[in-house]
Amino acid sequence: MSHDATSSGDSPFRSEPGARDAAPQFVLPLVVRIERAAPPARTDALETSARAVLTILSDARSLGEGEWAEAMRDWQDARIRKVVRRARGAEWRRAEGLPGITVTGKSAEVRVFPPVPLDGWPKELAKLQVSGTDLDDPEPPADAGPSAPVLWLNPELDMSAGKTMAQTGHAAQLAWWELSDTERAAWRDAGFPLAVRTADPVRWGELTSGGLPLVRDAGFTEIAPGSCTVVADHPALRRTPRV
């Protein structure tokens, strides 16, 4: 499932064509392990994909002169595309053989890879299916604690699990960009705790008008362009006034 997101201004998260659209386009691949006999719970997959994005953003190989740094810069300089594909069995083992990071949740495993050109996927990943990432929660997730970062989903949208995984990744990235270096380090050192929950309609209205990072989908698949999909409600962003 391929997505990018938008926000206002000259940003990689925007709907209007801009100068960055003329640059080579890169995509961040995410692969979720979905074995027939033991698929992951939906919410755990959403949370794990968000943590996977944060993990690669903060990895030493993505920073400075690290081996992934140039690809990460090229990717973040254009539209922030993410593609979620599924794998099982031998497919998953082949994906694990490529450079990347596997992040494990309670039941979910998501492997994130350094960005690749939009038309230059490794053959091991290009073969993987995009569809078939519909997942369920065996029981409703518990309420998120008041101190936990929460990625709130729009209650009015019906998105596939694959698309929603990309959207929670976008939201986590927006929150990361808004945090100070100290706040980022604290979140990383704690293991990137976060929750993904669906907001009730009243709460959604409050969240979207509160100045928190908000993902607007570019509308390539499933939903209309400009749809608000996720709000990133990190406690540090609630406490600290942002310009």
Task: Describe the structure concisely for a colleague.
This protein is 31% helix and 19% strand. The protein is α+β, with helices and mostly antiparallel strands.
Question: Mind explaining what this structure looks like?
Answer:
The protein has 243 residues and is α+β, with helices and mostly antiparallel strands. The protein has one domain: Bit1. Helix content is 31%, strand content 19%. It contains 8 helices and 11 strands. The strands form 2 sheets. Strands 1, 3, 4, 5, 6 and 7 form a 6-stranded mixed β-sheet that branches. Strands 2-10-11-8-9 form a 5-stranded mixed β-sheet, sandwiched between helices. A hairpin with a 4-residue loop joins strand 5 and strand 6. Helix 1 runs parallel beside helix 5.
Biggest sheet architecture: 6 strands, mixed
Number of strands: 11
Q: Tell the overall outline.
A: globular
Query: What pattern of helices and strands is seen along the backbone?
Result: EEEHHEHEEEHEHHEHEEH
Quaternary structure type? single chain
Radius of gyration: 17 Å
CATH superfamily: Bit1
**Mind telling me which CATH architecture this is?**
3-Layer(aba) Sandwich
Coarse structural class: alpha+beta
CATH class: Alpha Beta
Tell me, rounded to a whole number, the average pLDDT. 86
In terms of DSSP E residues, the strand content is 15-25%
The CATH topology label is Bit1
Residues in helix, %: 25-40%
> How many domains make up the coordinates?
1
Number of helices: 8
Distance between the termini: 34 Å
Residue runs with pLDDT of under 50 for 5 or more positions: 6-15
